[in-house]
Structure formats: structure tokens, C-alpha cells
Give the backbone structure.
Amino acid sequence: MRPRIGLALGSGGARGLCHIGVLQELSERHTLPDVVAGSSIGALVGAGYAAGRLDNLDRWARGLTRVTFARLWDLNLGSGGLVQGRALERLFSDLDMPDRIEDLSLPFIAVATVLVTGSERWFREGSLFDAVRASIALPGIVSPHFVDGRWLLDGGLVNPIPVSAVRSQDAQVIIAVNPNARLDGVIWRSPTQPEQRGNLIEGDNEPTGFFAVLPDQIKYSLSNLSFPVKGPAPPSYMQVLTSSIEIMVDHIQRSRLAGDPPHVLLNGTLGAMSIFDFHRAAFAIDEGRNLVRRSGDFIDALTDPEA
């Protein structure tokens, strides 16, 4: 009898689009997960898969450009973030997503963080939109989401790769996906200092990348936060904010994985890709497929009932 397979999809912004490729490749190998849990972008992709909308999500992601991604930003500096995140409502409508978690085809958990206490909130039932919207509320970027009398933030702050959530559903083999693997130990790459630059790809940390497509109001506000300095040009406001979050998440996920390791850990080599590079969806999705292919024999050995 085949073991019960659980899939834990980690946070990572645009890098997390690799989850689409992971799920596509697992499906083609007939290694379908029986339970899925996700944090942040992992919650969005996991919900799309559990709802049977993965192909539609793939088309949406591949259709994003810098311009169309910028149009998703509904600026509201009084919302607790730069944007309110209403684009997710439109995406849910366009994908025809179910209203409730109970309507999904398999058990699904979205992880969020309770702002007041810093504790985890696992969404296992109730509004699917609320679950995913809370899980993607990246601090300083996307506003917190109010559910059941509590303000909630991104699940990656407390459980970036929710192995524990999958394990709670009696999964016998757990496959975890980490879009944020830092095999070279580098979190931020300087666009101006060659010794720190590394293997940058188009859009990463560059003025022509994420910042260039922001609405004019945001660019004006953020540009006024900088002051003339002597010496090397410092990182931008957005680079400091996102890199700080990534440093924190990196330490948390290392600690949690050490204490609660999965059977298979797929480490995405997407470190040169910014968390805002949604226009590079095809690159991330292809990497997701490659992650499964590279570990295919090991996954087959763990999940084959005849092995």
C-alpha cells in the first residue's frame, strides 16, 4: 500500500512559483500528495492545486510581466503595508476558487502569524480566501489581514516551510520545498560592488527591476527616504526591508527543519532571483520541475508501495 504523502510548500515570494513546477512534475510521476500545507506563496499555490486550478494558476503566473505585476499593487500606506492586497480577490475570482477549505479535494492547511502574540494560526477549515490572504501578508509590503478578531501576518515569519502542519495530518512521507535555499550563503547581492555581485539575473536588486515598475506614488515616497551619503551607495529601502525579512526567515527555517526534518527536502537554487521577480515565473516553474527530477529516484524509493 502506498504511503500517505504530505507536501510542505515554503514561503519565498516569486521564487515560490517553483511550487507549480514541483506539483506538475509530481503529478506526471503519479506521486500525488494526499495532504498539502503552505506558508505565504506556498499557501497560494497549495490552495490552487487542492482546488484543481493548478493549470490556470500556471497560465496566470506565466502571463505576468513587470507592468502587469505593478498593476496589482493597490497603494494604501494607511493599511499597515504598502498595498492592501486586493489583487488576490480578483485572482480568486478569475481562477473560480472554492469559497471554503472544506470544499477542496484534499486536506489543506495555510499557515499565518498572529500579530499580537507571534503564534501560528493554522487554517484547516473556513474561508479559503481569508486563509491565503492572511498567509501572504508580508510585513511592510502587504497589509495584515483581519480574521476572527485578530490581525494576521505572513506565515513565513513563524513557519516558513510548514512540515509540522503536514505531519499533523498523519503524512507518512513528507516532501518539503524550500524556494529560499542559500547554497552560497548570500542573502543580498550588491548591484554596484563586483565582489558582492555574484550571479545576478535580470531584475534582481536593480533600479530597473522591481522599483522601476512601482506606482509613481510609491517611488516618490521611497525615494524621499534616502539621503546623500559618502562612499559606496547603500542598499535601497526595499532591499533592506526584504533582505532583513529573508535573513530572519532563513534562520527560522534552519532551526525548524533541524528539529522537524522532512523525508525529502527540495532546495530551490533561486537565490539570484528577487522575491518580486514575478515576471520570471517560467524560470521558477522550470526550476521546480528540475528539483523533483534531481531527487526523483529517492522520492520513488520512498513512495513506491512495491519498494
In short: The mean pLDDT is 85. The longest helix spans residues 237-259.
